[in-house]
Design brief:
The complex is a heterodimer of chains A (about 450) and B (about 450). By secondary structure, chain A is α+β, with helices and mostly antiparallel strands. Chain A has 8 helices and 20 strands. Chain B is of the alpha/beta class. Chain B folds into 3 domains: about 200 residues, FAD/NAD(P)-binding domain; about 110 residues, 3-Layer(bba) Sandwich (FAD/NAD(P)-binding domain); about 110 residues, Enolase-like, domain 1 (2-Layer Sandwich). Chain B contains 13 helices and 24 strands. In chain B, strands 1, 2, 3, 4, 5, 6 and 19 form a 7-stranded mixed sheet that branches. Chain B has a 5-stranded parallel sheet with strand order 8-15-9-10-11. The longest helix of chain B has 26 residues. Chain B starts with a strand and ends in a 6-residue tail after the last helix. Classes of the chains: A alpha+beta (about 450), B alpha/beta (about 450). At the A-B interface, helix 1 and helix 2 of A face loops of B.
């Protein structure tokens, strides 16, 4: 019976390890205690040692791969077994450890003291068999990255389709040119919405509009169940959102803002700015108005700690940006000192840097208040989760035409709902409501921002 | 009753030995039957021994032709027999290597002429062996000039050309493909008067036109006489050696030489391979197979790979075909050979290497293209080596910048092409090539520069 070696728990908190380098290769005979690989854990780079003797028949992952705790990393042929036969018996695919086999095949797991321990994390479920070819394995690797060729990506970008929807037929499920072309011709296999395609909340502010759609096609292919290992970003989101909900008692305050004047002003300004190629969004006005409001309501421009509330000396507004793999909140520093054009350009630059993965440490820190805008999805109203240690977050919904009572008549007006989530440990209801009243006033009569 | 073997491979060349070893790695019980020497033409009478001679020619050329430029003023003297001897030695060494690999992977081998007498049954000598699958990899041999048999002395094939007892004073070469030009380069370099006759309008007719033109000019400058667009109408033995009549664009011409090397192509080794009742389909000397379906012939259980199934007649293609064939037989993979990404090399000096479409073929296929080109004359490394002939020419699709073809002529062209094969295989575009940092100073950075030139970003041109 060959021995399946799985990713050991090398630090108390690790959930996965990145193979920094292999120190052995297929065909090597190894003894108990031999160092197999250097593994980057969430804490440090650790040595992964063997707890068995054998000959390496198969290695599942390359250097650089992130491997979940308990996932198989290699297979050893025991004495008397032919490594080649063992490898051939695996079918060549990088399959997950079979949970049933776990009992007979103790994982080479170790604590920092080097003592042998059984693998603590249960082995994940075996992936559903997808046809008989290793090439059919899903191409979405750890972290939601889609394996694809440069040419396939360029064709997909040109055709404005999400490459994650295209099923890859190249090595390891890589999406190659032919796959994209067949997909575009309607023949390709759609593997359904992938995690990378799923939209995370919020992006740079934009007025309500029909959401851009990928070239949608009705797919009759059966959906495939997929287990997607969490990327580091996903894990961070999960951890921070849970922490916020568990520690901050939230109060939600919603106001409807009539934005007819703002919309008219925006049109006027955009006409003037067309030559400069600047196009202000409704969201930019919101950002600007929030910045002005925060100066007047320092209680909202604050951070909370158990023994003190710090009213911050700067107004730095975090703007949630949706990414393929999750969401990130770059910070527009000193937003209160910016004109609308600077707000627009600053937001754009941050969103571009976020999507390009080029945000600097500065651009990711120092936030004093966050705005999350789902207006472009036509959302009527929602509550956002506070980005601790900040004390409040503003959820911006779509500006849409609604019946409005004017005097005793019902007229058509453009209305936008804004919801503040505030940490009641730091902000009381009246304080929150007062802030929202200021914000509403500024947005309904934008000229007031000049005062 | 179980068969003697899972797979019997007929032929021990680059297709046969590779297929046999791969099958054994996959746990199959394999027999490889070879009528001559393991390694086949490639190793014994082709790729390898010719490269040994060409290294020799390069050395002679460097000393005799370029020595003084490098400050060498001695007199180079060379012994033809020792050159041939070294070449044979290299072949022998590799031949032993394959025997070793067979032992290592427990591939059984028999020496003798094989005949398939029924599906699953192969006769070798007086013995009949049975197998689940038969893989034919018998290769190909030079095609004779119509009406003139090879005699091994005056009308010869490449095999004799690499094992002549004495250096001929003059040599006529019919065919300016890779084989013809490599021998032409070799013999010219060591002092034989070489005349090459090619029916088509340029040397290396399958290569990019610019490459052909550049190579022809270079070889003519070295002393070869090359007649393109010229038909050999008559070839006969004469008192002196051989005499040929050719029709050149300038008129008829008679050429006399000590020997004539006929290098006009090859034909599959299929004679006597199948008993009459085994009706494997053969088309113009080559076995017909389904290349998309594991190289199966029309007879179940019989497969064929390598030169015996037809062009492009290259050892590396044969190798891949054989490996994929047996992997499919073993149920291990369903790989197919991508015939659009096959590198081809000619080991003259300057050498020629290419993969993918030529400029002309790309245009004819309807591609809108962008060309990136970089001459080695601008390469510091090439100048330092004193070998600045040639260029890198890359053909990109205009819209996406995908690499459609790569054509290199230069000192180390044949070592440079693999990067372009990988680029095509991975569907790289010119941006990836430009942004992949190439070390300086090297010949290979000319690839990056060529891609940059295509994008208008090269700083060296």
């Amino acid at each position: 019976m060959p021995i399946e070696v799985t990713m050991p728990k090398l630090s108390p908190t690790m959930e996965s390890g990145v193979i920094a380098q292999w120190l052995v290769k297929v065909g090597d005979a190894i003894k108990e205690g031999d160092v197999l690989a250097d593994i980057e854990t969430d804490k440090a780079t650790m040595q992964m040692k063997s707890y068995e003797d054998g000959v390496i028949a198969h290695i599942d992952h390359e250097a650089g791969d992130e491997v979940a705790l308990g996932d198989r990393v290699m297979v050893l042929a025991k004495k008397g077994e032919d490594p080649k036969q063992v490898a051939a018996g695996l079918g060549g695919g990088a399959k997950k450890a079979d949970p049933k086999a776990e009992g007979q095949a103790p994982a080479a797991a170790s604590g920092e003291n080097g003592k042998r321990k059984p693998a603590e994390a249960p082995a994940p479920e075996a992936e559903p068999e997808v046809e008989d070819d290793e090439d059919e394995l899903a191409a979405v690797g750890t972290g939601g990255r889609v394996r694809s060729s440069p040419l396939a990506r360029k064709i997909a970008a040109e055709a404005r389709i999400d490459i994650a929807r295209v099923k890859g037929t190249g090595p390891g499920g890589r999406v190659v040119r032919r796959d994209v072309e067949e997909f575009l011709a309607g023949k390709g296999k759609d593997r359904g919405a992938s995690p990378a395609a799923a939209k995370a909340p919020a992006a740079s502010p934009q007025p309500a509009a029909v959401p851009p759609r990928p070239a949608a096609r009705i797919s009759t292919a059966p959906l495939q169940e997929q287990r997607i290992p969490n990327s580091r970003m996903r894990k961070t989101i999960a951890q921070r959102m849970s922490q916020s909900k568990q520690t901050a008692p939230e109060i939600h305050v919603t106001v409807d803002v009539r934005v007819d004047k703002l919309v008219a002003l925006r049109e006027t300004l955009n006409k003037e700015l067309a030559a400069e190629k600047v196009k202000l969004s409704v969201g930019d006005f919101v950002t600007k108005a929030v910045a002005v409001s925060l100066r007047r309501h320092p209680a909202l421009n604050a951070t909370f700690e158990p023994d003190a509330i710090t009213r911050r000396g700067e107004v730095n507004i975090g703007i949630a940006v949706a990414l393929e793999e999750g969401l990130i909140v770059p910070v527009l520093h000193h937003a209160d000192q910016m004109g609308l054009i600077e707000v627009r350009k600053g937001s754009e630059a941050l969103a571009a840097a976020a999507r390009g993965g080029n945000l600097s440490g500065d651009q990711l820190s120092g936030g004093t208040f966050t705005i999350s805008n789902l207006g472009m999805y036509g959302v009527k109203q929602f509550d956002a989760i506070i980005n601790l240690p900040e004390v409040a977050i503003l959820a911006v919904s779509a500006a849409e035409k609604r019946p409005v009572v004017e005097g005793d008549a019902i007229v058509v007006g453009t209305v936008m709902s804004l919801t503040l989530s505030a940490d009641h440990r730091a902000v009381d209801g009246a304080t929150a409501a007062d802030f929202m009243r200021t914000l509403k006033n500024l947005l309904e009569e934008p000229a007031r921002m000049l005062l | 009753m179980a068969n003697d073997y899972d797979i019997v491979v007929i032929g021990g060349g680059p297709a046969g030995y590779a297929g046999a070893i791969r099958a054994a790695q996959l746990g199959k019980n394999v027999l490889c039957i070879e009528r001559d020497k393991l390694g086949g033409v490639c190793l014994n009478w082709g790729c390898i021994p010719t490269k040994a001679l060409l290294s020799n020619a390069h050395l002679v050329e460097m000393v005799k032709r370029h020595g003084e430029r490098f400050g060498y003023h001695g007199k180079g003297e060379w012994n033809f027999g020792e050159m041939i001897g070294r070449s044979r030695g290299v072949a022998g060494q590799l031949n032993k290597g394959i025997e070793g690999l067979f032992r290592k992977y427990k591939v059984k081998s028999k020496f003798g002429v094989a005949q398939v007498i029924a599906p699953g049954k192969v006769k070798v000598g007086d013995e009949v062996v049975t197998a689940d699958a038969i893989v034919i990899a018998t290769g190909a041999r030079p095609r004779p000039f119509p009406g003139v048999e090879f005699d091994g002395k005056t009308v010869i094939t490449s095999k004799e050309a690499m094992s002549l007892e004495a250096q001929p004073k003059s040599m006529l070469i019919i065919g300016a493909g890779a084989i013809g030009l490599e021998f032409g380069y070799f013999y010219n370099a060591i002092g034989t008067k070489v005349t090459v006759v090619e029916m088509l309008d340029r040397v290396l007719p399958i290569e990019d036109e610019e490459v052909s033109d550049t190579l022809k000019k270079s070889l003519v400058a070295k002393g070869l006489e090359i007649h393109t667009s010229s038909k050999t109408t008559k070839l006969e033995k004469s008192a002196k050696g051989v005499k040929a009549e050719i029709e050149t664009p300038q008129g008829k011409k008679t050429i006399e030489a000590d020997v004539a090397l006929v290098a006009i192509g090859v034909t599959g080794n299929v004679e006597g391979l199948f008993a009459p009742e085994v009706k494997v389909e053969i088309d113009r000397g080559h076995i017909k197979v389904d290349r998309e379906n594991g190289f199966a012939t029309n007879v179940p259980g019989i497969y064929a790979v390598g030169d015996v199934i037809g062009p492009p007649w290259l050892a590396h293609v044969a190798h891949h075909e054989a490996v994929y064939c047996v992997e499919r037989i073993a149920g291990h993979s369903k790989h197919t050979v991508d015939y659009s990404i096959i590198p081809g090399c000619t080991y003259t000096e300057p050498g020629v290497a290419s993969v993918g479409l030529t400029e002309k073929a790309a245009r004819e296929a309807g591609h809108e293209i962008r060309i990136g080109k970089f001459p080695f004359a601008f390469s510091g490394r090439a100048l330092a080596a004193g070998e600045s002939e040639g260029f890198v020419k890359l053909i990109f699709g205009k819209k996406y910048g995908e690499l459609l073809g790569a054509h290199i002529i230069g000192a180390v062209a044949t070592e440079m092409i693999s990067e372009m094969v990988m680029a095509m295989r991975l569907e790289a575009t010119e941006e990836e090539i430009v942004h992949a940092m190439h070390p300086h100073p090297t010949f290979s950075e000319s690839i990056m520069e060529a891609a940059g030139q295509g994008l208008g970003e090269s700083v060296h041109i």
